Amino acid sequence: MRHSESGAAPLDFEHSLAIVIGINAYAHGIPPLSNAVRDANAVADTLEGQGFEVLRLLDEEASMASLSELLTQHLPSLQPPPDRLLIYFAGHGLAHTDDQHRLSGFLLPADTRRDDPSSYWPMASLRQALRDLSCRHLLLILDCCFAGAFPHSTPRDLRPPDSPAPLFLERFRHFSSRRSFQLLVSTAHDELASDRLQSKPSQESLGDGRHSPFALALLQALQSPSPADTNQDGLLTASELSTFLRDRLVDLLPSHCQQTPALWPLDWHDSGEFLFQLSKSFPSLPLASPLFQRSNPYLGLRPFSSAHRHLFFGRERFVDSLLEHLRAHPLLLLCGPSGTGKSSTVHAGLLPRLSDDPTWRVPPSLRPSAQPLHALSAWLASLEPGHPVPSATRLVSQPHAAAECVLSFLTRHGDLSLLLVVDPLEELVTTCLNDAQRQSFLRALSGLLQLSHARLRLLWLLRSDFEPHFLALLRPSGLSSEQWQDNRRPLLPMNRDELRRCIEKPAEACVLFFEPGLVEHLLDDVEQMPGALPLLSVALSELFDGYLASGRDDRTLSFEDYRHIGGGIAGALQRRAELVFSGAPPPSSDEQPAIPALHPGELPAFQHTLRNVLLRMVSLEGGELARRRVPRAELDYNHPEENARVRRALRTLETCRLVVASDDGGPCVEPAHDALLSAWPRLHDWARHAGRELLLLRRVSHAASEWHRHRQSNDFLWADGRLEQLGLAPVTLRRTDVPLALSTVSPGLQPTATLGFNAAESGFLRASAKRRRFLRTRRSSVGITVVIALVLLTVMALFQAQEAKVNAHRASEQQRLAETNAQDASQQRETAVLNAWDARLQQAVAQNNAREASDQKRNAVSNFEEAQRQRRSADHNAREALEKQQLAEANARESSIQKQRAEANAQETRRQREAAERNAREASEQQRLAEANAREALSQKHASETHAQEARRQQEAAEANAREAQRQKEAATANAQEAYEQQRAAELNFQEALEQQRLATANAQEAQRQQEAAEANARRALAQQEAAEKNALEARRQQELVSISARLSRAKALIEKNPTQAMLVLREVWGRDEASSTEWLQSALQTSHRLISNAVFIGHTDEVEGIQYSPDGSLVLTASEDGTARLWRADGKGEPHVLRGHRGPVTSAIFSPDGSLILTASNDGTARLWSVQDTSSHLAVLKGDGKALMTATFSPNGALILTASSYGPVYLWSTRKPRRPLHTLEGHEGQVNVARFSPDGTLILTGGSNDKTARVWNLNGEELLRLVGHEGAVSCATFSPDGQSILTGSADHTVRLWRLDGTQPTRVFEGHSEHVNSVTFSPDGKLFLTSADDNTARLWHLDGWYAPRVLSGHSQWVTSATFSPDGSFILTSSADGTARLWRTDGMEAPLMLSGHTEWVNSAIFSPDGSSVLTASEDRTARLWRLRGAGTPFFFTQTDSDMPPVLNPDGSSVLISSLDGAVQLFSLDGSGRRLGVLVGHQDVVNSATFSPDGSFILTASADNTVRLWNAENTGQSPRILKVNRKDMTSALFSPDGSLILTLSEGRIVRLWHTSNPNEPFRNLKGHRKAVNLATFSPNGNALVTGSEDHTVLLWRVDQDDPPRVLGGHKGTAMSASFSPDGSLILVASDDGKARLWRTTDTEQPLRVLTGYENVLNSAAFSPDGTSLVIASTEGTASLWRTDGTGNRLVLEGHTDSVVSATFTPDGSRVLTVSDDGTARLWTLDGRMVPLVLRHEDVLDVTTSLHALVTPDGTRIVTVCGDGLIRVWPLKPEPLREFFQTATTLCLTALEREQYLLEEPSIAREAHARCERSHGRPT
Question: What is each CA distance from 556 to 167, 513, 1201, in whole angstroms?
Answer without folding.
Answer: 16, 5, 82
